[in-house]
Amino acid sequence: xxxxxxxxxxxxxxxxxxxxxxxxxxxxxxxxxxxxxxxxxxxxxxxxxxxxxxxxxxxxxxxxxxxxxxxxxxxxxxxxxxxxxxxxxxxxxxxxxxxxxxxxxxxxxxxxxxxxxxxxxxxxxxxxxxxxxxxxxxxxxxxxxxxxxxxxxxxxxxxxxxxxxxxxxxxxxxxxxxxxxxxxxxx
Length: 187
Known about the structure:
Blueprint: H1 6-23, H2 26-78, H3 80-83, H4 96-106, E1 116-121, E2 126-138, H5 142-154, E3 159-167, E4 174-185
Antiparallel strand pairs: 1-2, 2-4, 3-4
Helix pairs in contact: 4-5
């Protein structure tokens, strides 16, 4: 067996190391890792931009729905008869006070004294008539509510416009101001 000199052994180790480096190229692995990392960063950026775009789209759609809804409401108030989906305009009642007092009797309460009537312009072809019964006294808090329910049930198109109730100073009943309104054709 022949003896290898130290110099030959060192040379053989260098050649073996060089052959090993040629057989397993690290540059390709490092390059693949860099490409994979860049692709991950690009995908993450794309995802965050997508999420931002979806938020912007959702906000724009919400705004568009609101604008369209408000525009439809505006158009129906401009001319409710033409739009078909606007508020119903009723024919003028000939004796609304007697109907309101009859509804009070149907609700088993004494009809209060009528205070005033006013008209509010609602649209070009209609107006809102408001009937006010001011500062009348009831024993039970449910009485004006029963009356309001009877009015809405008995008189077509009549709605509660406002209701204010305060206890009497001596705590024996309630002071009530109640007004009803109805959208009617102008005459």
